[in-house]
Amino acid sequence: MNFNDEAKEWDTERRINRAKQIADFLKSKINFDNKSIMLEFGCGTGLISNHFLDYFSKIIGYDQSDKMLEVFNKKFLEEKDRVIGINNIVELNSEVDIVISSMVFHHIEDINQSLNDIKKVLKKHGELIIVDLDLDDGSFHSNEIGFKGHNGFDRDLFVKQLSLNGFNTIQVGTVLQDKKILSNKEISYSLFYVHAIKID
User: Fold this and answer.
1) Helix (H) or strand (E) holding 124
2) What is the CATH number of the domain that holds 64?
3) Among 6, 2, 9, 48, CA closest to 27
């Protein structure tokens, strides 16, 4: 999937509704402090961040797609003093209280590198919540030619990978179960979450 090409048409009704479901779920798992800083890792157009404007003092959206970030920054133009989209997180050294990532990691080839980057931006004992696709047979992305990501994840293996990268998992569970239509065929899928803490 070329996210630059998809950016302008990304905010479909299905994605908007799913983002609200995910955000509502995440709100039930976070102990909010309105002085905290949140980073959305793989923010896209900001469908998740949009639901947290009243909960954090600053929201940083990170994405590798410049076109997605254009939409993100335009969407939050009136909040630009405290909501900003960036394509480089190297300078955010131990600055962030919580990182949220939704439906991003199954697109990432080098997961260890991304977890290492996240660990660097988090404060000591900072929180990480990842929402992603449970392991499937490839149906979820079957209409994407040349898809190079992961067909979801085995939860236990994902938790192990977090541990190897300096995170202590405190909770794992199901976020939602849903269906989507692909090539006139209905497929079922489920999303899980992992809530972890940076160890040191």
Assistant:
1) strand 122-133
2) 3.40.50.150
3) 48
From CA 178, how far away is CA 180, in angstroms rounded?
7
Task: Report the alpha-carbon distance of residue 136 to residue 104 in Å, rounded.
Answer: 16
| Radius of gyration of the chain measured on its C-alpha atoms | 16
3-state secondary structure of 95: coil
> 29: Cβ–Cβ under 8 A, 6 or more apart, which residues?
129, 171, 193, 195
Number of other CB atoms surrounding residue 28 within 10 Å = 6
Q: What is the mean pLDDT of each run of 10 residues along the chain (200 residues)?
A: 61 87 92 90 94 94 93 91 92 90 93 95 94 84 69 94 95 89 79 94
Domain span at residue 86 reads: 3-198
Nearest to 35 by CA among 100, 95, 115, 120: 95
47: Cβ contacts below 8 Å, ≥ 6 apart: 10, 11, 15, 16, 19
Count of structural domains, the chain: 1
